[in-house]
Amino acid sequence: MDKLRVMSVFGTRPEAIKMAPLVKELAGREEIESLCCVTAQHREMLDSVLNVFQIQPDWDLNIMTPRQTLSTITSRCLTGMDEAIESLRPDLILVHGDTTTTFSGALSAFYHKVPVGHVEAGLRTYDKYSPYPEEMNRKLVTAIADLYFCPTENNRQNLLKEGVDQGIFVTGNTVIDALKTTVDKEYRFTTDLLNRLPYGEKKILLVTCHRRENYGKPMEQIMTALRRVAEDHPEAELVYPVHLSPAVQEAAKTYLGNHPRIHLIAPLAADEMHNLMARCYMVLTDSGGLQEEAPALGKPVLVLRRETERPEAVAAGTVALAGVEEETIYAMASRLLRDREAYEAMARAVNPYGDGFACRRIADAVLWHFGRGEKPEDFHS
Ligand code: UD1
Ligand code: UDP
């Protein structure tokens, strides 16, 4: 029997980190030919992940342009995908999450009548502009997909409510599979500053902020709050690997630059980031991925957004929504720095997002779908 040609399509840093262990799992299956097509919606930040996980793409659309718009990303992806699909002739295309690469990859698969598997399916805020454009991207991919790999039961319930009743698997999130391969107690950083940070003496606050809906006023308020936290808490030291987006770079320099206890550094390789997270005091972020990783590592998270599509760790008590208002963020961060009990209540390792075997379940589900294996059991947290 011919091997099943499964093509993973991704383009940004978080998709790459979460698809890397899956690409490897698929490559390890005898029945599967694992193909990898990158759009390079992110260039440097994608290449860093490919390097950490030692993945060589079969196809590279190389679409990134400075200050790219949603329309240019979409149109460049669609045009490039035509040739990739015609040349690599996949039997199934896997897309991940909710970026513009995800949506364009799924739409292109549909145009070529290739079935689609959606990894990280079923996340919702039910606010079409928040996160923007991700909420709409994932809804549109739901309409196109044939297979749905939901990280949690809650995600499955969201799809059932929308009338999807076939092809759903609860697998856990592949990011937990990735974390298992990167975090190590003995890890030595290649970024020298990270080896020299005063982990024992100071409280290291790991910060990231990049979302499009936070551009402008919300980002200004978030960053002003963070600066006040650094100024008023001598025990706190902030480390912020700044996203390469020019809008974010400019805001970070304006509001957080030139402070002795705020380190604005270049984006970190995934293994550096995961090990820094494992050693920090807490995380302040508007990122999706960090909201899943930090709880697994026992680190409290303040989410710098108005809502989250990841309510599981909020329910477990290790993640709290801090919003985008200066006073609230400042007050919540200050409390976690000063109030030991409040901190301890949040600093517990919980794993609602996975057990590290999501990729195995996804590969099994793919083979089952094509009549070549057993149906996997769902993940239960
Ligand atoms: C994208 C995703 C977002 C995801 C985020 C993860 C969309 C619309 N947005 O947002 O869902 O949360 O990635 O980080 O799909 N840049 C570089 N080098 C890089 C990466 C980016 O220079 O390696 C710069 C470029 O100028 C680029 C800009 O950053 O134009 C913005 O990148 P883009 O992918 O459009 O948006 P993100 O904010 O990164
Ligand atoms: N990350 C990284 N280096 C950094 C910042 C983040 O490797 O400097 C990782 C992080 O650990 C997580 C992923 O990138 O695995 C999250 O990506 P991002 O925050 O860009 O996107 P989101 O998850 O919000 O879509």
Give a structural overview.
The chain has 381 residues and is of the alpha/beta class. It contains 16 helices and 13 strands. A seven-stranded parallel beta sheet has the order 3-2-1-4-5-6-7, with helices on both faces. A six-stranded parallel beta sheet has the order 10-9-8-11-12-13, with helices on both faces. It is globular. The relative contact order is 0.13. Uridine-diphosphate-N-acetylglucosamine (UD1) is lined by residues 12-14, 41-45, 64, 66-68, 70, 73, 99-100, 133-134, 210, 212, 243-246.
Outline the fold blueprint.
Blueprint (H helix, E strand, L loop, with lengths): L3 E7 L2 H15 L4 E7 L5 H9 L6 E2 L9 H19 L3 E5 L3 H12 L4 E4 L14 H11 L2 E4 L2 H9 L6 E3 L3 H9 L9 H5 L6 E6 L8 H16 L3 E6 L4 H11 L5 E4 L4 H10 L2 E4 L3 H8 L4 E3 L8 H5 L2 E3 L4 H13 L1 H7 L11 H12 L12
Parallel strand pairs: 1-2, 1-4, 2-3, 4-5, 5-6, 6-7, 8-9, 8-11, 9-10, 11-12, 12-13
Bound molecules: uridine-diphosphate-N-acetylglucosamine (UD1) and uridine-5'-diphosphate.
Tally of helical segments: 16
Tell me the series of helices and strands, N- to C-terminal. EHEHEHEHEHEHEHHEHEHEHEHEHEHHH
State which percent range the strand residues make up: 15-25%
| Inertia-based shape | globular
Provide tags for this entry:
7-stranded parallel sheet, binds uridine-diphosphate-N-acetylglucosamine, globular, binds uridine-5'-diphosphate, single chain, 381 residues, 16 helices, 6-stranded parallel sheet
Summarize the structure.
This protein has 381 residues and is an alpha/beta fold. The chain has helices at residues 13-27, 44-52, 70-88, 100-111, 134-144, 153-161, 174-182, 192-196, 217-232, 246-256, 270-279, 289-296, 312-316, 326-338, 340-346, 358-369, and strands at 4-10, 32-38, 59-60, 92-96, 116-119, 147-150, 168-170, 203-208, 236-241, 262-265, 282-285, 301-303, 319-321.
